[in-house]
Design a protein that fits this description.
mainly beta, 11 strands, four-stranded antiparallel beta sheet, seven-stranded mixed beta sheet
């Protein structure tokens, strides 16, 4: 059972990146899927939540700029990030949990660094 992220990197302000999160060993559609970021000196922040019924909730800080989607045939979650700002610099994680709260995430990816500079 694991999540593997990819797609991070260095991008200039205003640029775009797409992160991928490939799930194996479980069907992520049975879980609440999260994108979470952790920046130096800041608390972790839930960026996006994909509910099991397909409802998506975004943090106010990324609303209108980030889009999450899933490809169930590939058991993969994506995070499309546009109009990136230096404040978006963080390690981004995907996580899966049986309940919607970040506290109930039981499966974490290894994280991928996004640097906006």
């Amino acid at each position: 059972v694991q999540l593997v992220e990819s797609g991070g990197g260095l991008v200039q302000p205003g640029g775009s990146l797409r992160l991928s999160c490939a799930a194996s060993g479980f069907i992520f559609s049975a879980y609440y899927m999260h994108w979470v970021r952790l920046a130096p000196g800041k608390e972790r922040e839930g960026v996006a939540l994909l509910d099991r019924d397909g409802t998506i909730i975004y943090a106010d800080s990324v609303k209108g700029r980030f889009t999450t989607s899933q490809d169930t045939s590939k058991n993969t979650l994506y995070l499309e990030m546009n109009s990136l700002d230096v404040s978006d610099t963080a390690v981004y994680y995907c996580g899966a949990g049986r309940y919607c709260s970040l506290s109930y995430i039981t499966i974490w990816g290894q994280g991928t660094q996004v640097t906006v500079s």
